[in-house]
Design a protein that fits this description.
The protein is an alpha/beta fold and 480 residues long. The chain contains twelve helices and 19 strands. The chain is globular, with a radius of gyration of 21 Å. The relative contact order is 0.18. It binds dihydropyrimidine-2,4(1H,3H)-dione and zinc ion (ZN) (2 copies). One zinc ion binds next to loops.
Length: 480
Amino acid sequence: MPEFDLVIRGGTVVTASDTVRADVGVRDGLIVALGTDLAPGQTNVDAGGLLVMPGGIDSHVHLAQPAFGGPAMADDFESGTRSAIAGGNTTVLPFALQPRGASLRSSVVDYHKEADGKSYCDYGFHLIISDPTSTVLGQELPSLVDDGYSSFKVFMTYDDLVLNDRQILDVFDCARGCGALVMVHCEGYDAIRFMTEKLEQAGKKAPYYHAVSRPESVEREAAHRAISHAELTDVPIMIVHVSGREAMEQLRWAQQKGLKVYGETCPQYIALTADDLKGLNMDEIGGKYVCSPPPRDHASWDAIWEGITTGVFQTFSSDHCPFYYEGTQGKLNPKARTSFKWVPNGIPGVAIRMQVLFSEGVVKERISLNQFVALTSTNHAKMYGLYPRKGSIAPGFDADIVLWDPNRKETIRQELMHHGADYTPYEGMAVTGWPVMTILRGRKVMEEGKILGEPGNGAFLKRGLSPFAKPARDSQPAYA
Ligand code: DUC
Ligand code: ZN
Ligand code: ZN
């Protein structure tokens, strides 16, 4: 009987801290050895010329989320996680959403039904809180955190999700009590409604005006408000999908003040611009790029890189939120043709997150290989209570591994995405660096673009508390 089930031989192992030539030995789904000249395994993979990195962890994806009467999402757990492994990911964290008036616990039970037996990769759930009643805050959240749902998301906009300031403060205070990390969608609801009404009155209804209706100031104001509320309640927060300089500088300001404010950014903020929303002559093609916050401009890309390279951002996620383009469920649905405000917000990206960061970051020498691993895997595991099970290559970790060809030149194309959406907003983008094999707990699930895994290979991850959710030692809110 060979000592190892799998040996990955002759590659360059990259973690968030080290880059070494080593073989990796896997047994029973775990990494059990790193060394040179390991004995042959039952299966042997030649990784010569390849990077051997922790599988991607995408801590911000939306799959099979309730549509509130709007167009349905283009990905369920099956297609969304298939796309994830095609892109070199082994874990995703989507959101169990509480519709207003519903119990959070029953929303989680329903979301498990969506996921059970369907996932190609491992997954955990964040909780979206849209109705923070006293039962939710006093009973449901503490018990859900104990059960492994250790992070929440709150929204500062959207009719069906927006929380007012008092509700945000209550959720923050609750998170502090139960040790959960709160992710915040920072865009100001009233400012967006005002802008939308004014733009529509002026006849400015094309998809491009989605970006005009949510300028950077709207994101900056909300980010500042969220930071102030986090300071008042003395609770760490994670500001997600930061799009440009204004919000990035709010994060940096808070971090320099010593507040525990963490940041996430995404491929759309270094690879797309608001001009993409113009389509051809302000036509409907621009709907393909409608997401929130909207993509900005080239100067904003520079600001996002400044935030990535100086450590303002800890995680690089896709915010994969796929909708169809064509058809009655698509971004081109009849209502959406009447105004940008009806175009569903969100774009697919889980299959290209890592390639975009590698190509724009590592290949262009903005970040090191080790920073790349931190931003796409290790920091997600640490931030969301999955470390030290996920996020590195060392004995004892799950054997979640991506083999990466750093020299492979590819053009991003719809047929490589394996997602449910009928388009990719990155169509035609040239990248260098591509995942050639994805290994989930020791099992090959993707090789050279072929999906080898099956729905149901992925397991639910009960997460621990985030060490990042701990307030600074000895700190207290003034009311404690
Ligand atoms: N917020 C997200 O986090 N994802 C997609 C749409 C949105 O507004
Ligand atoms: Zn959001
Ligand atoms: Zn999102």
